């Protein structure tokens, strides 16, 4: 028997991935080991996309069975998983000069530029660099111009913004799970509250509410969580601190009797909770109950799902009996839409993707690789596209899921699509997305997209606003005008489940619903694991109050094919 140890990992999968990325950055900053740097960056990506249980792979010493994970990376991952530290990483941190390390936090500032800035201007810290930019001195350094100076300044401001500490949903869920696993040993019931429970696109604090028979003991146990790096404030029933990843955390431990009310108020939003409090005062009742549903009932309301609690009309709708009862759920989806394969930039073959869809019990799946203009993503020429049709036909004989031929066609600068009509008409489904020229001015962009929506071919407007959460703003355009054009033409709107995209954003979904547009909840999967992206797409749809009937891939295969047929016949 092994000695009893706390089996909770010292670092979760995404924290380890970040450490690998840091290692890649350090190797890059050292300027000599770009090959090794790429290996660490690839390893980070493998972990980010991993479906399997990392703990089992570590325990069984099977990490090297993962593609791209050699013995060196496996050793580092194991150290981080088991101890939260890595000697290799720490040594590398020592090796890179402090100046380089500090300044390499600015994206695309390589060691050569850092050395030049240091030599010419004596820049040592990000503060120094900011001052030099503001004074217009960076542009005087050889090899740098005004444009570089502006870019550096923007990067510094981004680094400093409160946005910089926000994390995306997968990371927030991973740490919430790890904390939950730790707390379960207490024994206690724990649930994430706050923005995460409302499925905000990114999170700046993890809030957990815990019910315990002996709250003070459970609080002590919570304070021993391996992921917790430090505690910033502490009360009788709660504490605030920071996780090893830097993410702020707030934990409230309460008696079982107070659990539902605490969870309700900790879930928010502030506007929603204030409205409930007003109702409670008016009725002379308190926000108490055994479950959240009890509390809503006391206020004369049906249960309001957490992702609707924004204080944006949901309580009024609930009072009027107008809250949609048939919001779309994951169980409603019959088809997986927007899937990439090795034909473009996906990691798995048509057959691997199809078998995964079979395993998920799906009725159909659209294979939608990139079009030629997306050359960086291996976009398919017409010949390659036709070769894929043959492969789809071959695979179809071996799987049950119905495979639909599609494309994710680039929307070109003039609003047209990236294959001739004669080709588009032979497809089952066309997703139309912007991948290049994101920075047109608002008029040009609006015109471009209005033109796309008006094309006779039926198209699903893919990751509509082109945003990357926390890293790229949405394109500038008049969304309502484009939605009008979509409603007048032949188009549906994608609710992209890639946790970096989640596009069209929920508040615009409401505007699309007002225009009676239809939706697909898609995966934008580039691997078998990412077929699970519907986990993120569904709550976004629900936040936009999207109902089952409005989601085309909640229909059966025949109805779906008919609804999205590019040529409009069939
Ligand atoms: Zn795309
Ligand atoms: Zn895609």
Description of the molecule:
The model is unreliable at 1-6 (pLDDT under 50). The protein is globular, with a radius of gyration of 26 Å. Strand 6 (238-243) and strand 7 (248-254) form a beta hairpin. A seven-stranded parallel β-sheet has the order 8-9-10-11-12-13-14. The protein contains 24 helices and 14 strands. The protein has helices at residues 13-29, 34-48, 54-59, 71-83, 87-95, 98-103, 111-121, 126-134, 146-160, 169-184, 194-197, 215-223, 259-267, 270-283, 292-298, 314-319, 350-359, 382-396, 421-424, 442-454, 479-488, 506-514, 534-543, 557-564, and strands at 167-168, 188-192, 202-203, 206-212, 228-234, 238-243, 248-254, 335-339, 364-370, 402-410, 429-433, 459-461, 491-496, 519-522. With 570 residues, it is of the alpha/beta class. The longest helix has 17 residues, at 13-29. Bound molecules: zinc ion (2 copies). One zinc ion (ZN) binds at residues 408, 433, 435, 462-463. The site of one zinc ion has 4 residues, from loops.
Helicity level, as a percent range?
40-55%
Number-wise, the strands total 14
Bulk shape: globular
Query: Strand order of the main beta sheet, please?
Result: 8-9-10-11-12-13-14
Number of helices: 24
CA distance, first residue to last residue: 65 Å
Ligands and ions found:
zinc ion
Give the structural class.
Answer: alpha/beta
Give the helices and strands, then pairings:
Blueprint: H1 13-29, H2 34-48, H3 54-59, H4 71-83, H5 87-95, H6 98-103, H7 111-121, H8 126-134, H9 146-160, E1 167-168, H10 169-184, E2 188-192, H11 194-197, E3 202-203, E4 206-212, H12 215-223, E5 228-234, E6 238-243, E7 248-254, H13 259-267, H14 270-283, H15 292-298, H16 314-319, E8 335-339, H17 350-359, E9 364-370, H18 382-396, E10 402-410, H19 421-424, E11 429-433, H20 442-454, E12 459-461, H21 479-488, E13 491-496, H22 506-514, E14 519-522, H23 534-543, H24 557-564
Parallel strand pairs: 4-7, 8-9, 9-10, 10-11, 11-12, 12-13, 13-14
Antiparallel strand pairs: 1-3, 2-4, 5-6, 6-7
This protein binds zinc ion (2 copies).
One zinc ion binds next to loops.
